[in-house]
Write a structure and sequence with these properties.
The chain has 72 residues and is mostly helical. The termini are far apart. The chain has helices at 30-33, 37-70. The chain has a domain at 35-70.
Length: 72
């Protein structure tokens, strides 16, 4: 059975035009770009908690190493 491809059903395009128009993209407003005060406070609190936890762990490690070396 011999089959050939027929391109007769292909639509004729007049020009290559994108469906994306510049009006679809709008830059965010200043209010949308601004970070909320609560988000800033919460991020700073989390960073401070991580700093305190890291400092405590490192202090304990140094303390145990010194006690192990020199006795307590």
């Amino acid at each position: 059975m011999k089959e050939t491809v027929s391109h007769s059903n292909t639509p004729a395009f007049t020009k290559n035009e994108s469906n994306t128009k510049p009006v679809l993209y709008q830059h965010p407003t200043a209010a949308e770009m601004r970070t909320s005060r609560w988000a800033i406070i919460w991020a700073n609190a989390k960073d401070f908690a991580i700093f305190i936890a890291t400092t405590l762990v490192l202090w304990l490690i140094v303390t145990f190493v010194l006690v192990g070396l020199f006795g307590g």
